[in-house]
């Protein structure tokens, strides 16, 4: 089984890396954007960089085609993501190809859902929240507790 770990650099990637023991020893790769902790990760792990959309339709299109190219090259069986905008197109592509996607809503989202969470809730096979309060927004989600 090949696992894709998709997250925007910064806090989303930091959250994802807290779960590293879950895929240790399994074939995996990362998809993120080119910021400090993503660049640092690429020095020790197989990492692909895609454009960070920042709610810009042109950058989103660029991200989508970059993500598609990575997906077709790597052919992952499973995608795990903590969001946000950098990772969502990759997850959508994976689902379109019938792959399993697990999404973990951001730790910083307590009082309101994230935009990526709203999108991923509709398409992910497994949707996890880190705060019980999030179950109000995502009633079919599973509460997993904090990744920290």
Summed up, the domain count is 1
* Helix-strand sequence: EHEHEHEHEHEE
Count of separate DSSP helical elements: 5
Largest sheet, strands/sense/barrel = 7 strands, parallel
Output the CATH homologous superfamily.
Glycogen Phosphorylase B
- Structure summary, number of beta strands: 7
Structural descriptors:
148 residues, alpha/beta, Rossmann fold, 7-stranded parallel beta sheet, 7 strands, 22% strand
Could you give the topology of this structure?
Layout (H helix, E strand, L loop, with lengths): L1 E6 L3 H7 L9 E6 L3 H7 L4 E3 L7 H18 L3 E6 L4 H9 L3 E5 L10 H9 L2 E4 L12 E2 L5
Parallel strand pairs: 1-2, 1-4, 2-3, 4-5, 5-6, 6-7
């Amino acid at each position: 089984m090949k696992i894709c770990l998709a997250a925007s650099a910064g806090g989303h990637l930091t959250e994802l890396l807290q779960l590293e023991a879950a895929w240790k020893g399994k074939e995996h790769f990362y998809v993120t954007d080119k910021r400090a902790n993503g660049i640092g990760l690429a020095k020790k792990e197989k990492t692909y960089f895609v454009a960070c959309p920042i709610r810009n339709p042109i950058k989103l299109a660029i991200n989508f085609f970059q993500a598609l190219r990575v997906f077709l090259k790597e052919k992952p069986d499973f995608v795990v993501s903590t969001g946000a905008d950098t990772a969502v197109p990759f997850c959508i592509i994976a689902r379109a190809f019938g792959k399993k996607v697990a999404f973990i809503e951001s730790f910083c989202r307590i009082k309101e859902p994230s935009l990526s969470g709203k999108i991923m809730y509709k398409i992910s096979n497994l949707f996890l929240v880190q705060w019980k309060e999030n179950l109000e927004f995502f009633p079919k989600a599973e509460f997993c507790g904090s990744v920290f």
